[in-house]
Amino acid sequence: MKRFLLPYLICPACLPREHLLDALVESEADGDILTGQLSCPRCRRRFPVRDGVANLLPDPDSTPSGGQWRYEEGGMADRYLWSHYAELCGAVANGAANEAWEGLLAGGHGPSLDAGCAVGRLTFAMAGRSDWAVGCDLSTVFIKAARRLARERQITFSLPLEGDLVENFSVSLPQGWRSDNIEFVVADALRLPFARDTFRQAASLNLLDRVAYPLAHLYEMNRVARSEGASFLFASPFSWTASASPEERWLGGKSSGDYPGRGAENVRSLLQGRGGVIAPPWRIAASGCVEWRMRSHSNHHELISSQYLLASR
Ligand SMILES: C[S@@+](CC[C@H](N)C(=O)[O-])C[C@H]1O[C@@H](n2cnc3c(N)ncnc32)[C@H](O)[C@@H]1O
Asked: How many whole angstroms separate alpha carbon 283 and alpha carbon 32?
């Protein structure tokens, strides 16, 4: 874990109290802590750094639960590498979608956060437009792949072509992409290990309907985003499912209970300050829809339509 992140890290287990973490470094190379421990001076919890990967989950020994097992399955990291990067090696993939997301990022000074970053495509785009960027995800496999790409600037992966045949991909980061000001950590988007008021730019793409407590996720994104001079790129296909969160916690997709109706409308009004959950309120600067694909094999793709809100304050 790169050192530049240290001054911003707080104990995720002590939230809502924010205690900065102490670092005990065992080995380090070029400002990258390879082995060590981060610890909370208050609750004494320890968060390991192994092979450069910081585990900042409230309980670092926890195992995936709910729908998260899907992301830990063999081959899933390769499917996300294809979704995020395949167009960089000439494949017809998600080039248009990636361009659309990048076009919605604001440039300027300050740090950026990509929550639920998977293998980090948007995080790289943020790093090119801000002082530094951090991506966080529950999946250690995804975070390791993203860190490898940042360190080696290239990665290879394979996906089924048809039946037992496979197709190999080799992706190199374009020359202009920065990898010195980027980091990826294992962390929970429901208890982010960052101090409040930190990020000038925050993003949550295709994550809200995957978390166990969608409202808590919005609350956390709001906490860590700056209260002034911040932008927030939010998107979701609103694929609500009881395997991710119980129906009573969904922020849409139901006709009764709290937050009935469509998710995009409910998130919009929450961000605008409805009910006082999210404060200070955000102004919605743009909204729309981006289509992107996940590939199973060369003749089978899933088309996902994500509705986005670009908010600022
Ligand atoms: C549908 S994928 C979207 C990935 C990426 N943002 C994109 O749009 O391509 C959801 C991601 O969120 C991660 N995730 C799910 N629950 C999470 C949580 N509570 N905290 C952090 N990441 C989470 C998953 O591991 C997965 O990488």
From this structure: 38
Ligand 1 pocket check: which of 65, 207, 306 to mutate, most ligand atoms within 8 Å of Cβ? 207
Scanning the chain, the segments in alpha helix (DSSP H) are 69-72, 76-85, 95-103, 121-127, 140-152, 214-224, 263-271
Nearest CA to ligand 1 atom 12: 116
Confirm whether pTM is higher than 0.90.
yes
Whether residue 200 contacts residue 175, with contact meaning beta carbons closer than 8 Å, is answered with no
Q: How far is the CA of 89 from the centre of ligand 1 (A)?
A: 24
Answer yes or no: is the C-beta of 138 below 6 A from any ligand 1 atom: yes
pLDDT of residue 180: 95
Question: Please, where in the chain does CATH 3.40.50.150 lie?
Answer: 64-312
State which residues of the chain have pLDDT below 70: 64, 66-69, 74
Confirm if 121 and 80 have CB atoms less than 8 A apart. no
- Of 94, 105, 137, the one to substitute when testing ligand 1's pocket (max ligand atoms within 8 A of C-beta) is 137
- Could you tell me which CATH class the domain 64-312 is placed in? alpha beta
